[in-house]
Amino acid sequence: MLNALIGMAVDEKRLSLDATIGDLKIEDTPPPLSPIEKTATVRHLLQSRSGISHPAAASPSGAIPERGRYAPGEFWFYNNWDFNVIGTIYESAVGSSVYVEIERRLAKPLEMEDYSAADGAYQKEAVSLHPAYHFAMSARDLARFGLLYLGCGRWKDRQLVPRAWIEESLEPYSEVTNPWTPPGTLGYGYLWYVDHKLGGYSARGGTAQRLAILPQHGLVIVHRVSDAKPVFDGPLDDLIQRIVAARTSR
After folding, report:
1. Contact yes or no for 205/232 (Cβ under 8 A)
2. What is the span of the domain harbouring residue 119?
3. Rounded distance, CA 115 to CA 118, Å?
4. Peptide bond between residue 109 and the one before it cis (omega within 30 degrees of 0)
5. Per residue in 50-61, pLDDT tens?
6. How far apart are CA 16 and CA 42, in angstroms?
7. CA atoms of 34 and 190, how far apart (whole Å)
């Protein structure tokens, strides 16, 4: 969702991907950001390549690199600090909350049936000035968002998200490196995972929440689970491959 909102703001000249966090007066709790960290750009944040290993709200468990080890743009790691700060930057640029803008610019045009701005909740933690942006969304509404991207940002007679932005967002700027992803499986664009095996892309959350978009098969797949009963990516990947096989063998 934030990828779409950022793309609209860039297209409307409200935000520049080349703006640095220093330009945008971004700071955080002590120790303060270093001069090198402040050279990270909005583009680096979208790519999860800022190199800023500052504690962040809603960070998943697991080690992050030592502070100062990587310069901006040098290395990819899944970084909630980057994602949270993008939200802060977006809200400052448009003068409105992420949740209100999802409702106004996506939910209403896509005729979502369940989402409202009241479904969002900021998660604030003392470790950082920048909150995480959680919201509830039904499977059918998430599928509508997937169909928007399957249609290259066009919904009925309106181009809601610029097509060029979506294409730029889906370039694999990095290879995903973590203990549970086999090498060569996934790339990372602007907030989207790029699936090398299936030729599509996906948004992935904890406990195998997923929105998978597979353009060459004309498929949008939404997988929703209870956080209390986690599912892991391996079985879900197998299920998606089975769905694709069933689609192609009709």
Report:
1. no
2. 2-248
3. 8
4. no
5. 999 999 999 987
6. 7
7. 24
